[in-house]
Amino acid sequence: MDEITAKLSKFFKNDEESFRVFDQTQVLETVEETTGTLSMMLGGIAGISLLVGGIGIMNIMLVSVTERTREIGIRKALGAKRKDILFQFLIESLVISGIGGIIGIFLGLILSLGMANFMRMSIKITVPVIWIAFSFALLVGVCFGLYPANKAASLRPIEALRYE
User: Fold this and answer.
1) What is the pTM of this model?
2) Which helix (DSSP H) or strand (DSSP E) does residue 13 occupy?
3) Of 105, 79, 87, 80, nearest to 142 (Cα)?
4) Are 149 and 86 in contact (CB under 8 A)?
5) Residues 49, 92, 94, 77: is their CA dihedral positive or negative?
6) Which residues contact 53 (CB under 8 A, 6 or more apart)?
């Protein structure tokens, strides 16, 4: 690098703004920095998507609790315990988020295979990554389904039966 810089300096008569010499390590550092920035951006987008999906699940579950208030009251009046109602709505939340996770995985597979074919590049899809994605979908379902499930489980039978 020093030899090339010296020869170019002679050629351009010590005008160092006319040329620039760099090696592969500098290029590699730039690529790694760009990759890190893109990874953080994609992580942020994924986090926002999970939050939006979770809020959607919570809204669906809150509407479900409101629509089924009388049913909850009847079940509690017939002896259903708090944990029974809680598990009913948590399982419903898990089913919704699980179906969303499966749809997301299939769309991701189809889009990544399509892009790989279009761009003529190879991709590697691993089962552990798919399981992690599906687990996150279920975790979002549990986290955002807890509030509606708890709201349903804490209803008093008398108030629930009077609800119109």
Assistant:
1) 0.74
2) none
3) 87
4) yes
5) positive
6) 97, 100, 137, 140
